Amino acid sequence: MLFGGLGLGGAAVLGGIGLAACGGSGGGAPSPAPTLRAPTPVPGVTDGVFGLGVASGDPLPDGVILWTRLAPKPTQGGGMPPRDVPVDWQIATDQQFRSVVRAGTQTAQAAFAHSVHVDVRGLEPGRDYYYRFRAGTVLSPVGRTRTAAAPADGGADAATGSLSFALVSCQDFQNGYWPAFDAIAADRPDLVVHVGDYIYEYDPDSHFPDRRHTTPQTPGLDQLQTLADYRNRYGQYKADPALQAAHLAAPWVVTWDDHEVENNYAGLVDEPGDTGPEHQDPARFARQRAAAYQAYYEHMPIRVQLDPGSPDLRIYRRLTFGSLATFNVMDTRQYRTPTPGNIASAIGPAELGRTNTNGTMAGAEQERWLRAGLDASRTRWNLIAQQTMMAQLDGQLPAGYGEILTNLDQNDGYRPYRRRVLAGVRDSRVRNPLVLSGDLHCAWVNDLRVDFDQPETPAVAAEFVCTSISSAFFLVNDEFVRANNARYNPHVRYFRGDRRGYTRFRLTPTECRADQRIVADISQRRSPVTTDATWVVEDGEHTAHEA
To answer: What's the pLDDT at 13?
Structure first.
């Protein structure tokens, strides 16, 4: 269990002077033991203050972000008094906190919804740690985290060890429960990678009485607008016990997609097809985006610099795990140009994407950042975590008749951009590139080519698209998709759309192994999770094969 030491004994340790000393080096005297001030009752801080749990993220070889938010009433503004509150924290090598290696106090500021982000440094690389918080005399649950491995001399050729991680996206609270997160918690991976749609912005409307969304300040628009709207929605999602369990089990690396702000937005352009009161000009939408981005920061274990009130927040970043793997974590929403055609459904002629020569999903600066990172990488595996499926997905509706259509909100709406990115992957000669994607609510394994219209050309990378945690499948049905794939998408190696779940990975120096994990029934809180198929990419190969 991850909740040891939460009774009176745990409180005594947390406030005490008998914490184990940090080990010294070279036979010298040990470092002083990390100590905390005595527990002091704080007015307004009572049991339930850690109702959103705890989390960690963005691991480095010597550090990690620890997160919590004080919120006894998470869907009613948080329920905290309107003043700052000191929060104590500890990180230890054991669950009982007998060997505490770092400790301190950080202020939970009312201006940031009493959220706490602690950037702990001075840790050892490649090992498990356990952490917890205290507000007043109340202890939080205990979370497990893990630092990244240190690079080995010799770079990719000297890569050792392994890295396990889960790839997840799209957790629509109203569409069902989240057994996938319970399964991830049971896996105890080294890392969870979330590629977007952590919340959904829609109005209350669910078949499950206990899964109805919070009511926004202005109902009827089917979108959130104010900082209070977004905070309450995050509070609702993060109070879910399965999501909390997955956060307790491992550090997360997160990025957003569209629903953290508004469906299919692009830059400062709101949802295509919006009219009347739903439509917002760029100035109004910038205020909405600023609120959404601040709420995202307040609820995520992420290492970023927030400028309150600004509609801008740089979250693209790079994380390295020894000489084994580099994750290039992208943001393809904040900087993208408008979706071609401005079509409400986003489904339109493929030609609109082909001729979108001035379009970009990442912006010129981020495109350069990605290419520079690929050029400089010295790790065995190089992963690009981004939002929407990168592989081409063309089709006809009905299959075999009429105009060639595509989802213009995906990379298919920005084909010259995609060509630049994949040409950069090819030309960088980076070792073992992999693309990680989500958004589409179904699972895929794809070969990626610079030019998908020339299927005889070699693949430059493999792509894994995870299915959704709970969001509904919307591509007609599996048979329709398979019929179109047979005609137009020969690069698709695997597809399944009728089940929710996640993709479980294990990287070693010799292979990337990916299990397609599926949930039997998301209408139940507890439901079996099994492996539907396992796909493997061998070191030096750019395509996947079924195990």
So the answer is: 34
